[in-house]
Amino acid sequence: MLIFKGNGVYGAYAIGKASVFKRGGKAVLRKKISNVQGEIERLYEAKNQALLELEEIYKKALYEIGEANAQIFEIHMMMVDDEDYNESILNIIRTQLVNAEYAVSLTGENFAEMFSSMEDSYMQARASDVKDISNRIIACLLDKNDKKIDFGEKIIICADDLAPSETVSLNKDMVIAFVTEQGTGNSHTAILARNMNIPAVVNVGEGFLERIRDNDLLIIDGYNGEIIAAPDADTLSKYKALQKQDIEKKQLLQKLKGKENITLDGKKINVFANIGSPDNIGSVLLNDAGGIGLFRSEFLYLEKDRFPTEDEQFYSYKKVLESMGGKKVIIRTLDIGADKQIDYFNMDKEENPALGVRAIRICLTRPDIFKTQLRALYRASVYGNLGIMFPMITSEKELKQVLEICDDVKKELKKTNIKYSDKIEIGIMIETPASAIISDKLAPLVDFFSIGTNDLTQYTLACDRQNSKLSPFCDPHNEAILRLIRYSANSAHKYGKWIGICGELAADLTLTEEFLRIGIDELSVSPPYILKLRDKIRNIRLDD
Amino acid sequence: MREFEHTVKDELGIHARPAGLLVKKAKEYESEIIIEKGEKSAVATKLIAIMGLCVKCNDIIKIKISGSDEEKAEKELKEFLGANF
Looking at the predicted structure, is the pLDDT value of residue A519 above 90? Predict the structure, then answer.
């Protein structure tokens, strides 16, 4: 059993036989010529032939992969006709007195090199386009007719890299996955795989093809970017089960997408997503979340070795808000401390970090850090539907302090004519027993509550979350937790405010019915749970 | 000769597709059209050279037009760039 790693392009599994992609002999020989004019005519003929072929491919691609993706072949036609490209080829033929194949090959390499050396990753990927058209012209010069590729059975294509025209020439009904040694998430193979909804692993690295032969059994894990060659029986059955689950999950997804989160007797609830990085937005949208109920802003601080600037934060928040297109996005302010430590914050060592200087306590003792984040959030608010949520509140006094700082930030922005939305919702996490017990005092001050059940459990039951020996004692179904949730919900609703749950308990399907009965307005769960939760809600009846 | 500046708003900059559109457009005129970005420049009818400028979002490009139909070209190119870039 051999395992290779690359970048997974589309989350899915494939199990099947390898087919190592072969090209027609590409070796281009440098030959001296004497008849320059004759060689140039050969070149023009080959170019015309290449243009005709590209036109055909373009038409086929229009039908198979749509106009946006087919346009690359229009670009290829323009490249074949490009003045600089042609001048270079003619120049090489004339001055070096060499064959057209060699002149095209050398020109192709030079131009590809130019693209490869550009800073932009998109432009770097265009090197393969120049190589592709050059190979096509060379094939026409050599009059090779190896462009139709067909297979008798379903296969996994393994190649160094696939040129756009090569992927279009494949008989796609027979392809169940792609593996390429090179390539990126931007390469055509990747785009094609996504369009075809089949897994691909790119950038596996050199040496892969040397160790794979036609008809080798391969498992492709597009989620983790893994290829398993010659799997043993256990691994094979494990992946067959995973594949089956995956397909079932996707069918469920298809079935439930666009449907409401509504019980059999008509009670509606919002199902939102919890995420920790803008990279997760794809899966939020794919799983049809109604919004983002908890966006942990810590990633901005964790991925750096210094404080993120206001602008850096602003652009991240803006991107998230724009990507969600008007759907609610609740961003939780900095929650560092306890189990999440960052060196450059220079926090003192604490005996008991879970009960230490964390979250809002850092923000209130170091208002400069807090204000920078708030300014970025308020500035970004005009790009979507923002909610801001504060963690670890334990008293009315703290909350008032926080709201005062928000007012200061708004005043500063107004003074400098920087716009912010006046529709931002302000909320707090209910994650300490104190905040739940005084929720009737806190509700009038905010727009919403969101219950963080993980910390609420830890603090209510006096059980350290990190200590696995405590798990028998750390039962989140404990009546004490449910009472705190119920009490908080009553407090919120008494003042016309809404309440959600964003902790792990929100995804606990054994409690969904109870939460609906309590009148919880929103459940926020990690993206893969959204549709399962929707399924559960749609099968609940409350009126009996 | 006429010249004007344009700030590129397309998120990906002048990538393959808009570069292709620009080349097609530039071929409609008799005038020679040069695109400048910083110290680099390219003739607008040359696709690979235009892509080689590596123009990104928010880059400012300068367009220089000289020839018999430069007035018409300037007017139409301004509209074209505004709509596509």
Answer: yes
